[in-house]
Automatic annotation (TrEMBL):
Residues 32-147 form the Phosphoribosyltransferase domain. Its EC number is 2.4.2.7. The keyword Glycosyltransferase applies. Catalyzes a salvage reaction resulting in the formation of AMP, that is energically less costly than de novo synthesis. It is found in: Cytoplasm. This is Adenine phosphoribosyltransferase.
Length: 184
């Protein structure tokens, strides 16, 4: 089994002072490591009816997982990007708030969905995505992340839904929301 942490680069003080940005581009540039990360994520949950991937780095892993399982890929996008009728959820950032959308016809009631992103920090983004899924009366089977930053309350924000990550890093010396708002 490959040590995937070798393919994650820490970028201190990006996008602003005090944030250690987890850069996944070394993983993206290594086809074998990227394929292994998708395979290992897929082993963590049962096959869903659809994959909901969070803009934008979640699209990478979400696409891989949707192809792996042979199920639809549903993008959760920032406000204003989806052309059709949408449902919306607002969530808090360190400064202010943001909005995510799904196409209103993207999921059918009762479908079992896995929500995918590259990284779990405070959990605000993933929790908002779960609320979007629930607005469409679909069901969240669980969450998959490549990376979890522990100590920021992310898991608690996701409630009872199972959450799995291939790599975990403890955040030290930052405020409770210190690693968040790093942008997507
Ligand atoms: P949160 O909503 O606080 O769980 O933040 C998660 C989202 O912000 C994910 O889409 C990540 O891509 C991004 N993010 C937050 N913190 C970082 C970080 N330290 N490095 C890279 N991305 C981050």
């Amino acid at each position: 089994m490959t040590d995937l942490s070798r393919f994650i680069r820490d970028v201190p003080d990006f996008p602003r002072k005090g944030i250690i940005f987890k850069d996944i581009t070394p993983l993206l540039s290594d086809p074998a490591a990227l394929a292994e990360s998708i395979r290992r994520l897929a082993e963590r949950v049962e096959k869903p009816d659809a994959v909901v991937a969070i803009e934008s780095r979640g699209f990478v892993f979400g696409t891989g997982l949707a192809l792996h399982w042979g199920v639809p890929l549903v993008p959760a996008r920032k406000f204003g990007k989806l052309p059709g009728k949408t449902v919306r959820e607002v969530y808090s950032l360190e400064y202010g708030e943001d909005t995510l959308e799904l196409h209103a016809d993207a999921l059918k009631p009762g479908q079992r969905v896995v929500v995918v992103d590259d990284l779990l920090a405070t959990g605000g983004t993933a929790a908002a995505t779960a609320r979007l899924v629930e607005q469409l009366e679909a069901r969240v089977l669980g969450f998959l992340f490549l990376i979890e930053l522990t100590g920021l309350g992310g898991r608690q924000a996701l409630g009872a839904h199972p959450a799995e990550a291939l790599l975990a890093y403890e955040v030290v010396g930052e405020g409770p929301r210190g690693a968040s708002a790093a942008g997507r």
